[in-house]
Design a protein that fits this description.
Layout (H helix, E strand, L loop, with lengths): L2 H10 L1 H12 L2 H17 L10 H23 L10 H4 L2 H4 L2 H15 L3 H11 L4 H8 L3 H18 L9
Helix pairs in contact: 2-3, 2-4, 3-4, 8-10, 9-10
């Protein structure tokens, strides 16, 4: 498929992409952004398209993956959009975060965390700080599987050491 054919086929799908994006985002501006990003990524990766296969399905898969990745990023970062004048929602209640109860709980958790063996504590702490498994493996010079295993074991041990903080879905 030539570049001109590719571009023409892609632009002919724009209205379908927009409608599909609206199903995901429920917001016109976000749907436009998602559609635009999908089209840009399709153009950028056009060499990965296999000719004589379902082009529409390929482009819609790109959109779905972009949406999922954006959603995961937003959830992981805890993004909150605050339109109030004093940014009340964004700032949160600092009194509650600095309460004596929270201070005592943090000390208790830190004390239990410090009882973990160094081989479990270090990978767990790095993962908690946002390092990726591969980065932890490279820094500690151990296989990725070992990193994952040690983080899992550290979580399990902390849950056993701190049963009062275990999440319950009631």
């Amino acid at each position: 498929m030539s570049t001109l054919e590719f571009n023409n086929t892609l632009t002919s799908l724009e209205s379908y992409l927009m409608a599909f994006a609206m199903n995901y985002t429920k917001n016109v501006e976000d749907a436009r952004d998602l559609t635009q990003e999908t089209m840009l990524k399709a153009i950028r990766y056009k060499d990965y398209y296999t000719p004589k296969t379902n082009f529409k399905a390929w482009v819609f898969t790109i959109m779905k993956n972009i949406f999922i990745n954006q959603y995961r990023r937003k959830v992981k970062s805890g993004t909150i959009f605050d339109n109030s004048t004093d940014l009340y929602l964004l700032n949160g209640n600092t009194e509650e975060r600095n309460s004596p109860d929270n201070h005592i709980a943090n000390q208790e958790i830190q004390a239990k965390f410090n009882t973990l063996a160094e081989e479990y504590r270090e990978p767990f702490e790095m993962h908690y700080l946002g390092y990726k498994y591969k980065e932890i493996a490279e820094k500690l010079d151990i296989p990725i599987g070992t990193v994952k295993s040690r983080i899992f074991i550290a979580r399990k041990k902390l849950m056993d050491l701190l049963p009062e903080y275990r999440y319950t879905n009631n």
